[in-house]
Amino acid sequence: MHFKHPEILYALLLLIIPIIVHLFQLQRFVKVPFTNVQFLKNIEQQTRKSTKLKKWLILITRLLLLTSLIIAFAQPYFSNFSTQTKFNTTIYLDNSFSMQAKGSEGELLRSISQKIIKENTPLNNTISLITNDAIFKNLDVKSLKNKLISLKYSSTKLDLNTVLLKINTLNKHLINTLNKSLLISDFQRANFKNKSSFTNVNSPLSLLKLTPKKNINVFIDSITVTKNNLNEITIKVLIKSTSNNTSAIPISLFNNTKLIGKTTAQFKNSTVTTVKFTIPDSLDFNGKLSLVDSSLKFDNDFYFSISKPEKTNVLSIGNSSEFLDRIYTEKEFNYTSVQLQKLNYNDIQNQHLIILNEIAVIPPELTQSLQSFSKDGGILVIIPSKNSNLNSYNNIFKTLDIGIITQKIENEQKITTINYEHPLIKDVFEKRVSNFQYPKTIIYYKAYLKNSSSVLKLANNTSFISSKKNKEGIIYWISSPLNSNISNFLQSPLIVPIFYNFAAKNLKINQPYYTIASENSIDIKTTIGKDAILKIENKTQKFIPLQTISQNKVTLKIQGLHLQSGFYQVKNNDKLIKTIAFNYNRDESNLTYIDLKSLTINNKNIAIIKSIDDFFNEINNQEQINWLFKWFLVFSILFLLIEMLILKYFNK
Q: What pLDDT band is residue 9 in, cutting at 50, 70 and 90?
């Protein structure tokens, strides 16, 4: 038994007063003359005995009456906690996109929100609500209802350890408060990185796992954009299913709102399939891919943006060659040919393709510039000179980490082998040629290139044209000079498609989409004024990101913003610079979950509950107070009546 005002119990000490009064009460006896003394003595003995018993009964009833009144004013009650204890409940409600899955009563998030509204009847309790993107403190019933009704799905994912950290931070300043926490989620593995630290729980924690009816989801995972030539682009769409699927899933491609094409994704009892779309490379394309799946909605659409191609910048350094002028026409290319002595090194980073055309000695400063160019995704073609300085060439080979040139060989060799599977050649021939008129060369340089791929080979199996991936860029090595005095390769039908595809096949396409995350860094290739700023906007949002201005680009950093999937325009004042596309992260699309029982091992504070009713019933039982002061008031009245009956009827 507890007391709301225990200090009043000190009044029980005052009960000593009536005891003293009754024990030491002094009475003056009056002498009354009486004739029959013997009869008087008998009456006196009986009266003394009954009076003594009566006094003791009155003393006891009065003591019990006063004791009941004092205890009643101290307000006694039965409860597990004192009335000074405050009760605080913290609920984490996972509103990530995986909670769109349907349970037995509809979408998981919506159905559990309705149950919380229905069952939440706090007595002496405050409730705080934590979601993936917000914290609401000390809510009453009405405020909690409004927050739950207006709660929206969020692209933000919270690791469960982060949730615990938020709960501890929220409650650490509460004094004389019993904290109880509830985590409501589907508990996906994607949101649970470190299980060991999660078991460090020092206050009561309940886990309520929500499970969808069907554990299957079909979604668009990603796309790959490749350039076949300067006229068309292929979009390869990767589609996944969370379990083996035999369905045929329709998928549509839109340019903004205009339907461009439809196809069907055939899984054939697997979990992965791909489809392809081809679009013209002559316009700005704001693409949206859509499929129909009833499990989760957020991953049914996928956005990407491809800007209208600009002319490809091609720079030839060294000897001027008429065949390059004929291939890189003004209609499709910005072609420049410059002698080494007149080269402006600042022009290098603005190029897409650079051809070192028979330079005898490659200077170190050019080597360093070409290293940065290749690192940033540029395409480099190296054509040696008849009198190439091997030390300078090996210096650039070493700097680019592509291999070594061992020797110059003057021996006629025919170019006999074509690698039809190489990207440069793959789409050139409709079928393989058997009666090909082989070109030849009388001088070539033998080189060993690391992890390279041959495009053409000489009769002695030495590579004539090799390709080597170098970080973001590609390097092509042609082992022989191409002037007509050394080789007749310029008269070969291969010369045009190969050099044309140096630019067309390998030109780096700008990133077609970005994934919404806590922080994104986006490079925009543009030149703006010193005091100018870029802003990003769509129909519902408008903001100015952090930005760093470089010579030929502006780096935008987007952080701390809750973005929606779709298209965003990057503008300089009101001038459109670029359209970028954002998509939601697909981690939650996989529908893989953790076993909650593994979290309760060796931790008594963690409990798994089956329903929200159990949680609120437990809270209400803890807060329940059984007041007893009314009973003690009844007892005091009862003892008063007993005393009155004793005084009126006893010993008559």
A: confident
Burial of 387 per CB tally in 10 Å (0-12, 13-18, 19+): exposed
Closest to 565 in 3D by CA, of 298, 379, 350, 367: 298
Q: Which residues contact 29 (CB under 8 A, 6 or more apart)?
A: none
Q: What's the pLDDT band for 559 if we cut at 50, 70, 90?
A: confident
CATH code matching the domain that covers 86-210+596-624, chosen among 3.40.50.410, 3.30.310.50, 3.30.450.40, 3.30.390.50? 3.40.50.410
Q: Is 360 buried (19+), middle (13-18) or exposed (0-12) by CB count in 10 A?
A: middle
Q: What is the pLDDT of residue 188?
A: 87
**Angstrom distance (rounded) from CA 205 to CA 198:** 11
* Token pair of 517 as six digits: 């995350």
Beta partners for 454?
Answer: 466
| Cα 482 from Cα 470, distance rounded (Å) | 24
pLDDT tens for 192-202 read 765 555 656 66
Whether 514-581 and 218-309+586-590 are alike in CATH topology: the answer is: yes
- Residue 571 Cα distances to 464, 534, 565, angstroms: 47, 6, 19
Query: What CATH fold (topology level) applies to the domain 514-581?
Result: Immunoglobulin-like (2.60.40)
List, as own/partner pairs, every contact residues 360-367 make where C-beta atoms lie below 8 angstroms and the sequence separation is at least 24, other chains included.
360/385, 360/387, 360/388, 360/389, 361/388, 361/389, 361/392, 362/389, 362/392, 362/393, 362/395, 362/396, 363/392, 364/395, 366/317, 366/340, 367/395, 367/396, 367/399
Q: What is the mean pLDDT of the chain?
A: 83
Phi-psi bin for 237: left (phi > 0), alpha (psi -120 to 50), beta? beta
State the angle between helix axes of 108-119 and 141-149 in degrees (0 to 180), rounded to the nearest 10.
170
Q: Which fold has domain 218-309+586-590?
A: Immunoglobulin-like (2.60.40)
The DSSP secondary structure of 609-626, one letter per residue, reads -S-HHHHHHHHHHHH--E
Both structure tokens of 174: 């509460």
Separation of alpha carbons 238 and 323, rounded Å: 41
> CATH second-level architecture of 312-504?
3-Layer(aba) Sandwich (3.40)
Strand partners, 463: 457
The b/e string for 506-527 (b: 16+ C-beta within 10 A; e otherwise) is bbeeeebbbebeeebebebebe
Please answer whether residues 132 and 203 qualify as being in contact, where contact means their C-beta atoms are separated by less than 8 angstroms: no
CA pair distance 179, 89, nearest whole angstrom: 6
Which tokens sit at 277?
Answer: 């779309």
Contacts of 277 by beta carbon, 8 Å cutoff, 6+ apart: 234, 235, 237, 253, 260, 261, 263
DSSP 154: B
pLDDT tens-digit map of 131-151:
998 899 888 888 888 999 999
Domain edges within the chain: 2-79+627-649, 86-210+596-624, 218-309+586-590, 312-504, 514-581
Q: What is the pLDDT of residues 211-245, one digit of tens each?
A: 998 888 999 999 998 876 667 888 999 999 988 88
